[in-house]
Amino acid sequence: MERHGGKITYENIQELKYLDLCVKETLRKYPGLPILTRECTQDYRIPESDVVVRRGTQVLIPLLTISMDEKYFPDPEQYSPERFDEETRNYDPDAYYPFGAGPRNCIGIRQGILQTKIGLIIMLSRFNFYATIPAKIKFEGSQYSAPSSSSEQAADCGVKVKMFVYTLALVALVIFLGLKYIYSYWDRHGVSNIKPNIPYGNLKTVAERKESFGIAINNLYQRSTERLVGVYLFFRPSLIIRDPYLAKRIMVADFQHFHDRGVYCNEHRDPFSANLFALPGQRWKNLRAKLTPTFTSGQLRNMMPTFMAVGQKLQAEVERLVEEPAVHNVRALMSRFVIDVIASVFFGFESNCIQDPRDPFFVTLTDLVRAVSFINNVRSAGVFVCPALLKLTRLSSLPPEVIKFVKEIITYQIEHRERNDVARKDFLQLLIDLRREAGENKEEKLSIEQCAANVFLFYVAGAETSTATASFTLHELTHNPDVMVKVRQEIDEMLERNGGKITYENIKELKYLDLCVKETLRKYPGLPILNRECTQDYRVPESDMIIRKGTQVIIPLLAISMDEKYFPDPEQYSPERFDEETRNYDPDAYYPFGAGPRNCIGLRQGVLVAKIGLILMLSKFNFEATLPRKIVFEAATVPLAPHGGLPMRISRRVK
Length: 655
Known about the structure:
By secondary structure, this protein is α+β, with helices and mostly antiparallel strands. It is built from 23 helices and 13 strands. The strands form 5 sheets. It has a 4-stranded mixed beta sheet with strand order 5-6-11-8. Strands 7-13-12 form a 3-stranded antiparallel beta sheet.
């Protein structure tokens, strides 16, 4: 304390070596839990023994007993911090694990010890303490801690272990029966279903990170032939709609029965969750009506100069990259292009992601959003699969760092423009205009939190859709040179007719490019599934089945679009299947952005940005595949993301 002017910091606490020895000795004599439990998950032969611990056997590790055994800790009743001193060590380190060991040790070890040390420092630096009871403590019978003598130790520990085991057994039985009831939901309702794995439901492969959510739903689709099949998304009974005509009817004609998505939304405690994607009922309808005018053809025309300015930077960067032959990750390039567009159009400022892959805006958002951690996995599961989980844990739908970062940018941009009467032709300006008009009409204004939440939504949706569409199209073109020749010829002719200019109207002329984009969206939809929640009981047409209010409905876009009943030869990349003259698909089974009132509001902008990127790339550069045609997808994402990106050889095109 004297060295640091009375200040207590994290670093200062690390200097207190003897205090650390005392805490270690305390944890030896009085471990937080006197036992640890494990269950054998596969038969295990004990080393140097013929004993086999059978699968399902419960194993108890008696921490308290081991730590008070003189074979491992000489004179165990003596409180001796020095036994843990590295220079005079007097204990068996392999017998000391007060918080457990290995992957399932206590996750909060360091915080618990730190809090304890802070309390001790504050108390011992200011006050004296005198004992009023003997050194040997008599413990409450209901507490798990050290008994008062060696003989009592065995008896008390035995009783407590039994009570602990019985309690665990009772809790396990209650949980098991509860899960059995949950996982019998579809059987009780007479619905054909796929047998679940407790406690994962039908998402065991997702929980084990073996495949993504969309691929898992695709595989479940393949395991049934029914129009509807019951599944369990962890603990949530859901219906996969295998009939594309019924799926379209749910989204369009019978929308009033399925107008919500059934994802997590808490407008008051977690404003960022209350975006256009998640809002239910009338609140969604009101916001959709306000935002729809921002994605009209006129607004997209106004934004074309911004799109093209960013596109020119992309061309210049690729020109620099191809000075020397090399393989480049095309998905990463297109991602940086799209995020520069989004920064300008939605966030209201110019980023530099294309030239600088370490641009703070790009790195901060991509690293924070894609960070893999247990908490982020809980967030993802809570948002899409089990909203009650976020309500129970009181976790936010996004990492707090993301919320803070986005909110600070949007707050600054809105306040700066409103204060200085600055205007730009971008999405953020349209939100600012909506705020001003609401104020003038004495209506409720969009809050800054609402603006930030929806800007971030369009960042996530736009970044994934445009990036995936452009990069997957390039991937398919490299494996289908005849298609590449046709689309490139169309682009060259359009540019020649228009003096090299790319305008909103010129892009409309590119009919074959449009077919290519449609085919890409069939094979690689932006989201591999759509979800809806039944908001009032619904009788399935041509059936006696009733979908109950509150049931989640899954529309497996990827699975339907790869089903040969609706798309002949689905593995083949064939843009011509969408040509009106030679149409070879079922139009009622094609809705890559959803259908009906809750379809994707930004679909035209997403497709437009992808087309601009493709035009700029194909008009100037050659692309050569380095990967096989069939892509291996990442297991940790909801959208379809290629494992390791999409590396290609890029060279300057010679006309």
